[in-house]
Amino acid sequence: KIGKFEFAHQGSLFLDEINALPLDIQAKLLRVLQQGVITRLGDTRSIPIDVRVIAATNADLLAEVENNNFREDLYYRVNVVEIFIPPLRERKGDLELLVGIFLDRLCEDMAINKPAISDEVLDIFRTYCWPGNVRELENCIERAVVLSQGHEITKQHLPERLFNKPTSAVRTYSTSFLDGYKDMIEAAVKRNNGNASQAARELNIARSTLYRKMKEFDIT
To answer: Taking the chain, what is the end-to-end CA distance rounded to the nearest angstrom?
Structure first.
């Protein structure tokens, strides 16, 4: 049977969660990317392919390489053009836009009127840290639409976790959001004696994000 690579010949193949590939499969993937040929299971013929590969991951692949969970040679083979998409907690300016998109889509699917959203709900959204990223926001909006049934979405329509627990370590700082973020990163780096990998794990962010923020805030 035709496999994914052969099916994607002269097109694009999207490999999601590439960090989850077992090491033996990583070796086979590397060979395909290097040689541009595949062999069907049970066959002996090599079939040339021309495929553009787009890979995605929510893990820090360099950290996975250091932990021997991801092949270093495969990392440098797939990491040609890197596109970093910040997590929702780092782009709160997109919240209202995403909320509007999800509302339009859900209300159209459910054939109900698009509800308004109270200012209190939007404030809760802005202060929550969104560990589940955009998918968590979408699920919260779907829940609120179902419970509100076309009426205004208020706090009572939200999951309690959004407002009953500390929303972010940044909130422990009394300065502005950006100053608080800088102080939090500086403190984590200092606590870990300059070890970026350990500091990133403590902050629950990718090491690449930590380096980017350190450069942005001029932290050595």
So the answer is: 54
